[in-house]
Amino acid sequence: MAAVRVKNLRKTYGSFEALKGISFEIEKGEIVGFLGPNGAGKTTTVKILTCFMGANEGEVTVAGHDCFSHPMEVRKRVGYLPENNPLYTDMTVYAYLQYAAQLHDLPADSIHGRIKLVAEECGLVEKINELISTLSKGYRQRVGLAAAMIHDPEVLILDEPSVGLDPNQIIEIRQLIKKLGREKTVILCSHRLSEVELTCNRVIIIDLGKIVASGTPTQLRHLVEDHANLRLTIRGEKEKAIEVLKGISGIKRIEINAVRERGSKGYDIYTTKNRDIRSDIAKSVVANGLELLDMHKEMATLEDVFSQVTTRVES
Amino acid sequence: MKIRHINIIMHKELSSYTRSAFGTIFIVVFLVTSSWLFFQSFFLMNQSTMRDYFSILPWLFLFLLPAITMRLWAEEKKMGTLELLLTSPLTSGEVVWGKFLASLGFLTIALILSGVIPVILFLIGQPDFGPIVGGYMGAFFLGAAYIAIGLFISGLTDNQIVAFILSVSFILVLLAVGNDLFLNTVPESILPFLKSISLKTHFESIVRGVLDSRDFVYYGLFVLTFLYLNIFTLNHRKWR
After folding, report:
1. Domain check: are A121 and A230 in the same one?
2. For B18, which residue in chain A has the nearest alpha carbon?
3. Which tens digit of pLDDT belongs to each residue from A48-59?
């Protein structure tokens, strides 16, 4: 059974349509990246999934319970780290985690053990008695995450968990999320593509209230056509090189890029989709008396996918 | 509604009063101001009674109690912690009651500490016991009503200052409609109505030592109405 099931979800704020009927399913144990530019509807979707907000239309089931008819059952099973990681900064880490545990009805005798466990998992042990207001942003983020998982939720929803962190902290949080994803269903909202690419099994791209693409990072890369997927550096005359390259079938377009070494130039080759012509290129170039110094295949990044699918909708 | 859930919220809010300097400052300001205003006239009158003390309270509470309620929701909204609170498996009713009882508990602590004054009175004279008990009961109920208003208004904004000013204004109106100065200017026909809705007339009646059930029903309904309105606005929120 799917951990999260959303069907034809609509939400309007006044006359503004934030969600225009989105549907998706997330299986148990998946780490799904929810990707989109700012204002795309990510946070709105998350707020509905966590029963913070209602919707105008549609069905939402989280952890086997309906969000609109049984919100309490859903809330018990969901761990949530809201955008900007709000915390009661006048509390100590321990007091805060204790409060979070009580809010989720954990039995009093198990709370201490549970706090110890999540503090260890999130690397908070040495800060446990400090005031949250004295902690660095990275530690605060861990506190938020620890509080979200204090009740061992089935589904963990993290809205922009790495905003404002330095690169080392981002790596730590990412590793933590991956670890969590082994047992739990994780929804990770982000507009940082590299993050989603590195942590998620599946990506849902949302823009202007609609899902514009969905699939594994690899599947999504295949969506991008017309991409410079080969970069060459050839020593020899430019005109001759272009003539030689033009003679090879499977090449759509040739562009000269900025790479310039002594007597050599860089070329970007746009190939027809899904054809590997690397050996053809190598052979022809060498056979025509030119020197092939370098050739590598460029993978489309999620950035490419992202900018393509999100601008396509706008135009 | 689970008592345990209300308790969690109450405990958390109460400890946030005592944890910060705010709690201490509030109690010191309350005790110093009320005693100072009271003892100013006390030695002039040379009467062993607390009547003047209780007549100051509605006006002192007017500024002090909105200060303890203004942050209850406004701060949660501003900080974003409201989202944590309202996505936890607690009902809005439990949270509202928890916050209300925390403030009321805090006020009760302040009132108990002001018990020094009657103790002094009993040491230096023979005051009537009844009016003092009535006065404290009145202060408790009046305070509960102020807190219910303040809590409700705090839930309408994310700005604590706005919450404070609106609460003071609103309470002021409900006090003023029972004031003689104001009552002299209105047509006779609506006098009973104004008197019956004013926070002040019911307070004065309890303080006088006349224990009329209508006054208690008034405060009970008053508090329930505003707590209900608070729950209603929470459940029908449209915040982003």
Report:
1. no
2. A90
3. 999 988 888 999
